[in-house]
Queue: 3 jobs
Job 1
Amino acid sequence: SVIAITDVLAGKYPVNEEITVHGWIRTRRDSKAGISFLAIHDGSCFDTIQAIAPNELNNYQTEILKLTAGASVKVTGILVESPGDGQSFEIQATAVEVLGFVEDPDTYPMAAKRHSIEFLREHAHLRPRTNIGGAVTRVRNCLAQAVHRFMHSKGYYWISTPLITGSDCEGAGEMFRVSTLDMENLPRTEKGDIDYSEDFFGKETFLTVSGQLNVETYCSALSKVYTFGPTFRAENSNTSRHLAEFWMVEPEIAFADLGDAATLAEEMLKYVFSALLEERADDMAFFQQRVDKTVIDRLNAVINSDFVRMDYTDAIEILENCGKTFENPVSWGVDLNSEHERYLAEEHVGGPVVLQNYPKDIKSFYMRLNDDGKTVAAMDILAPGIGEIVGGSQREERLDVLDARMKEMDLDPADYSWYRDLRRYGTVPHSGFGLGFERLVAYATGMQNVRDVIPFPRTPKNAAY
Ligand code: 4AD
Ligand code: MG
């Protein structure tokens, strides 16, 4: 099987023996003495391996001297310890087979130079070949694997919840419709409405905004569960924190209150950041150097801190009295904007903060009503630099209170009959949260925009690829 460059650089292969690696040229440098130095990457790690190609090779003039960034090669040679610093091993090439040249190197978009992040975004199919694109990809993978490992170690079962749904979890009217109806010739009911009984599923369906309602059903049977998959929101917000398609980790815990959910979220963040610093030191050193000078310190601070927990009511008081003028003024009852969230996390606390017990009128129907009758047991975790990274709550497990709340919000109980059943048959207190995975990756790398931490970002007016 093909040897990964990361294993070669880690010393897993014997020196002074023949080895073959495959990859793409990052740079080629030629010495006057008739030797070319090829830096080769295969994406398995941040570093390249250097292959030294002497002019005795039969294709030296015809091919090796024509290698440019992005060309693909198969290199065979003797693995030796590298005399230069910064590199552990290199290959004294005995054969360099060119698998694919780069057509017209002058117009190759990923030519070896620094590109703007916006330029890379417009070339999403070539972006993973760059240093930054590769590093983001490996970090994203590392965090996803760490999430699964963490949940598994805590005894949670991973549940696959559907992407196509008939229910609106968040009730924010941000759903993409899924339909096979002929748009030119929509079937109509007698009243003139679109007749969804003619549609594929025989009813109106959407892409899910959250797996929560579905995963709650499994929580009410297996106690500790989570879902981790893509979710979709047709919110027309062109910000650095919003995607129309993003991934979410959603644990759901039976016999647990809001504090238990906040604790699990805190432990999860610490676990995945520790795993990241341990497993991807190479990529994190790059982010620290090139993207955000404080990123590693920041992650270490999170790992070593106790998250501050603060009531919404207290946060409003802090914001009202902080002497700062916000674009959107605050008072009890308003939803917080990212400027408020960032003030609290960055300036007031200087670290992640768990904000809890929000006014019920700005939150979803399923959140548990507190005894004050005004607030619900909801929490958001706000992180410096990014704002809300986690949103969660204790769920309303009392059928009568849930029904009253749904009525208040004009939701039809018939649409949620299966959800109500969980309260009718052996109801239990339970809690959960959603961790926005792209916000997590952005936070962990210092990348400023969630569009740059998902392979193919989906945003308003943009579904390229
Ligand atoms: O706060 P949200 O809307 O919560 C829910 O969907 C709950 N049903 C989760 C649950 O309790 N199981 O979303 C959760 C998180 C946010 O905190 C944010 O990190 C992320 O999902 N998020 C987005 N990330 C990228 N683009 C968007 N448009 C996002 N909307 C939410
Ligand atoms: Mg939220």
Note: The chain is about 30% helix and 25% strand.
Job 2
Amino acid sequence: QPIISLQNLSKTYSVDQGTFTALKDVNLDIYKGDIYGIIGMSGAGKSTLVRCINYLEEPTKGKVYFDGKDLGTLSAVEFRKARQSMSMIFQQFNLLMQRTAEDNVCFPLEIAGMKKKEAREKAKELLAVVGLSDKAKSYPSQLSGGQKQRVAIARALATNPKVLLCDEATSALDPSTTQSILALLKEINQKFGITIVIITHEMKVVEEICSHVAIIADSQIVEVGTVEEVFTHP
Ligand code: ADP
Ligand code: ADP
């Protein structure tokens, strides 16, 4: 059973003149442990797709199954639990600028009701996982892009997610920093068994770490398979 299954998923946005179809009849199965790349040009619908997976956007049609459960029909409690099992990181990191690295990681833990001291311990552990122990007291403005993304990854791991959704997570980074962030994501996938979904417009990101890939163009998935199947041509 896939951990994420999208079935006949469509998403239309209301725009001035009517509606715009950003996703059309998308079907996709992602299995536990996959590093799944979703690649396509700007405007293809990648962000919309990944935001439908955790219901940041509600699909207009079709279903999203997480761990076999239809997200659209869960009780409020179950829905919240499913959503907490999916963390997200972004191109622009989305850190709280007035908080230190450590406090940024503590934030979701405190929201979840963890005691301050306990949250602090866990944040320290997570900053060690991402190789940033020495920057715990630094503010985002004092960190490089790669370091900021490491903080965001630590924050994403705080809630013990099953899935990490990455929306152009390396697009603001230079090539060597991109390499090191991809290596960290691979390590997290292997060490913790976290399924990773990577949205990107860069072929090299997919080739570097993905096990599977879907190509999206004009709101539709046009090709899907293992990276070998999709990128190896006779
Ligand atoms: P990608 O991530 O591949 O660049 P997006 O999913 O961000 O693509 O966007 C796909 C299309 O949907 C784009 O044409 C974009 O302008 C449009 N779109 C995205 N979000 C909205 C929105 N909230 N309202 C209207 N149109 C949107
Ligand atoms: P990304 O870099 O992930 O592709 P975008 O810059 O396309 O993101 O979009 C940033 C935000 O603006 C998103 O929340 C998206 O829903 C919204 N957005 C994108 N395109 C449009 C649009 N044409 N109309 C309204 N909102 C949009």
Note: Residues 23 and 219 are 4 Å apart (CA to CA).
Job 3
Amino acid sequence: GKDGYRHYMEKELHEHPVAIGQTLQRITDPAAKTIALPELPFNPADVPRVTITACGSAFYAGMVGRYWLESLARMPVEIDVASEMRYREAPQPNKGVALLISQSGETADTLGVLRSLKKEGQSIVSVLNVEHSTMGRESDVVLGMVAGPEISVASTKAFTAQLSVLAALSIEFARARGTIDQAQEEKLTASLLDLPSKAAEVFTRVEDIQAMARVVAEARDVLYLGRGICTPIAYEGALKLKEISYIHAEAYAAGELKHGPISLIDRTVPVVAIAPSTILFEKTLSNLQEAKARGGRILAFTDAEGAKKLKGVAEVIVTLPDVDAFVAPILYAIPVQILAYEVALLKGTDVDQPRNLAKSVTVE
Ligand code: F6R
């Protein structure tokens, strides 16, 4: 049941801390502050490329994973949505690894890519919530998220659980490839293990998120901006808003604003910024100032340091707990999803069963 929550989505949003915590419990050694994944059938040092494929929110988790694998493990990464990857006829490298991400393990396009990349000789690693699924059976290695059942059509806790697995995998690859030392591994792992308590703290900011939701709920179009590893979180925010509140939203890497979308901006098109002070902040800030100068209403997710600098620029600021830049995309995903939920409540939509959507897309 819903345990007294109004919707499954609300319940599942509150399960973020537990989903992250339980997932990490399986794949870390908390005492040693090291990563302890199941054994991989290849040596990451010999892998020439990882090919990441998924759909929807799981694809955005994969985009974050690309930043981690590239920057921490110096691992070349190819990524696309499954419906495109399936028909691209892209060349696959010898000894390559295919990384599939799926909550359900049944998504038709992702499964299609799994099968074709397996034929191309790639090792198949899947990040799944439902481990006893078709994808689970057909993979060489399953990295399980421990998010528990997700009933709401919109994915919530599975997203942060996916990110937790991808973060751990990136640390593991970095260790094997010799791109981080033990002290760095311990520091990165500690910042992951700290996440459940930081995630719980996000819920003390709900009133500020509601203030933001009142602005968003009046809009017909909303722009989400992020930079670097927070760009996929902007995509996730825009997808969730469209999906459950039926308000049109688009996400951009903030640096792209002046290459087109800035012409959309006026008082009626709010700009939601994913802007932790630790990630290319000054650059994002200057993009937000440009948007404000064109009459845009700026709504920002940031931390205490960022909030100081956003004063006078942003109309609503949600100040989140301080976290290491490494885990910021995981933490910031939570308030971004809560925002979509709060807007949907104001709009009175069917939050758990948005129109035209199914939980698991088993047809192409
Ligand atoms: C968005 C959402 C969808 C799924 C996508 C992939 O809130 O739920 O975009 O993320 O359909 O589903 P799985 O992860 O089951 O492959």
Note: The pocket of fructose -6-phosphate is lined by residues 55-58, 102-104, 107, 110, 154-155, 239-240, 243, 360-361 (CB under 6 Å).
